[in-house]
């Protein structure tokens, strides 16, 4: 039976230790990417794909996430009094972006555990999981394509991207076999962050999943794995190898992805997005060219 997917789960309970001290008192998901927090890009992507019910899995000191997607009446009143309608629209935009819900993860026991915390909210229907470290360019189609394939195949679907073989130890890696669809593969095996040189492919899992609700049953019986955490990758490996709920397929993404989980890649993401904006690019591009020339 096909369901219209409306629910998105966004795990956001991580401590963001790679960005300390900036993330000592501010959630890493609130770090600005140009002039919007990273988490807003993720929620906008979900909404653009037709997902209107968003559950965030949060933790301690994450109140700023809830505040961002709520009204700030004093700020709105001040902007209205000043006649600053452009900034007022930007502030108000996030208020009603989606139907937002929040649940705490408690102990940080891994991505699989975070997803399992959404079980009561999601119920027995397919749902999407979006990780905040991966930003997908709004001009490129990924999530809606994954939802389409999930509906067609009645199976779980994950996003894959080909990466440099030297970087496979940084990702969950999939072994695959071709299907009759060029951008879709069937997953035959998954391993979380294999040792350098031991990966069987360069198909890396990136932070988008469209999952059958059966994943909750599997996660409840998944033992801690890499890092002594409950890994979503391990649960999906079980579903793939045992063909649970239709097995697992992958949509191979070849568009623009920005990694905000690493400091250097975070800076690159800001620059890449800023230079393509009409309000910033014309001034920023020539400056970057001169700056680059001066480096040489």
UniProtKB/TrEMBL annotation:
Q: Which family does it belong to?
A: Belongs to the UDPGP type 2 family.
Tell me what reaction this enzyme catalyses. alpha-D-glucose 1-phosphate + UTP + H(+) = UDP-alpha-D-glucose + diphosphate
Q: What EC number(s) would the UniProt record show? A: 2.7.7.9
Q: Which SUPFAM superfamilies match?
A: Nucleotide-diphospho-sugar transferases
Cited InterPro entries: GalU_uridylyltTrfase_bac/arc, NTP_transferase_dom, Nucleotide-diphossugar_trans
Q: Which Pfam families match?
A: NTP_transferase
Would the keyword Phosphoprotein turn up in this protein's UniProt record?
no
GO MF terms, alphabetically ordered:
UTP:glucose-1-phosphate uridylyltransferase activity
GO terms (BP aspect): UDP-alpha-D-glucose metabolic process
Record's protein name: UTP--glucose-1-phosphate uridylyltransferase
Keywords from the named record: Nucleotidyltransferase, Transferase
User: Could you tell me which residue ranges the Nucleotidyl transferase domain spans?
Assistant: 7-273
Name the enzyme's class: transferase
């Amino acid at each position: 039976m096909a369901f219209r997917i409306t629910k998105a789960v966004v795990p956001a309970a991580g401590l963001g230790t790679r960005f300390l001290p900036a993330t000592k008192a501010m959630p890493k998901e609130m770090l600005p990417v140009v002039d919007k927090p990273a988490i807003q890009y993720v929620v906008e992507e979900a909404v653009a794909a037709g997902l209107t019910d968003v559950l965030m899995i949060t933790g301690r000191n994450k109140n700023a996430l809830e505040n961002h997607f709520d009204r700030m009446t004093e700020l709105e009143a001040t902007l209205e009094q000043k006649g600053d309608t452009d900034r007022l629209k930007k502030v108000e935009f996030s208020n009603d972006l989606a139907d937002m819900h929040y649940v705490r993860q408690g102990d940080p026991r891994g991505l699989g555990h975070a997803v399992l915390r959404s079980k009561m909210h999601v119920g027995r229907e397919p749902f999407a999981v979006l990780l905040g470290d991966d930003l997908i360019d709004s001009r490129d189609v990924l999530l809606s394509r994954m939802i389409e394939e999930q509906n067609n195949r009645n199976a779980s679907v994950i996003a894959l991207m080909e990466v440099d073989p030297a970087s496979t130890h940084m990702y969950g890696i999939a072994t695959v076999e071709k299907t009759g669809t060029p951008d879709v593969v069937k997953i035959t095996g998954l391993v979380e962050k294999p040792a350098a040189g031991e990966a069987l492919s360069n198909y890396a899992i990136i932070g988008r999943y469209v999952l059958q609700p059966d994943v909750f049953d599997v996660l409840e019986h998944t033992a801690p794995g890499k890092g002594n955490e409950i890994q979503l990758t391990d649960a999906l490996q079980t579903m793939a190898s045992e063909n649970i709920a239709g097995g697992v397929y992958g949509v191979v993404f070849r568009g623009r992805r920005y990694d905000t989980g690493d400091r250097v890649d975070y800076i690159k993401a800001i620059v890449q997005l800023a230079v393509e904006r009409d309000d910033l690019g014309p001034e920023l591009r020539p400056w970057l060219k001169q700056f680059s020339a001066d480096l040489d």
